[in-house]
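Fresh eyes needed here. I'd like your take on this protein's tokenised backbone:
***
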Amino acid sequence: MEPDQASPLAHVIKKMNNTLIIFLENGGREIMSFPPSVSEEAAMENFLDLHPEMQGQIKKRIFTPNDRTPLDTYRNHALLNEDGELILNSRSSFVEGKVLEVRKKRDILIARLDVPFFKALEEDDLKTKNSIKNMKNFLRNLPRDLRFRDIQKEADIVKYDPFGNVFYIGVLYGGSGYTKPPKITIDSPVTDSTFGFAAEGVAMIQNGEVVGAQITYPGCGYTFVPQITVEEPESGEVAVVGCGLPQNTMIDRKTLKENSEARYSS
């Protein structure tokens, strides 16, 4: 794999330069960029002129002419394999790119909440104001709570959508015969083009009926309204719980409903 093809950030630098990558015995690395006219020998001389103390600490040097890869990609993701060849940690690179993408979208979604928040203040609508305040706090914390460790495939990191969250579920029919709160299962958000984590919730019962349900984890990546399966009672009628529209998404209500119909029509 060529270094400039391995990183999703490779498009940042358009101009080609010659790159000198120095791997040190202590595990560190030094990266320098030179004009295309500078040879490997001249680049190395320049490096040692600037860092004479590293003369005996060099483990491996790699010179890549006509390179478009951003220097930060090498600083953050360059490794040597067992054969001493340069490789880029593609997973780390994908994660870095995804974090930048998430922060940009998060900022847009927060800004969209400003108008309804100020309107709630003017109308002294305490419920709406608090709801928007909680949503803003959720979005501010989102980059910190990204679940990269739970994603096995690098391709799923690229498709990972931490938005499209489910915050509300409601009881449509309470059923009967429940002696303990039934398990509720919310459909997975994963599609061919998106990756996310299923929302989770719990049910409350009273006199054998499900009288309430609430989200314990809002999930992410929903591009449709998921269906919810409620555990059946040992004897009685199963309850029905419905899901609210996914929030924190660029998808409009009409498209969300169309996506839901297409998913569950068969």
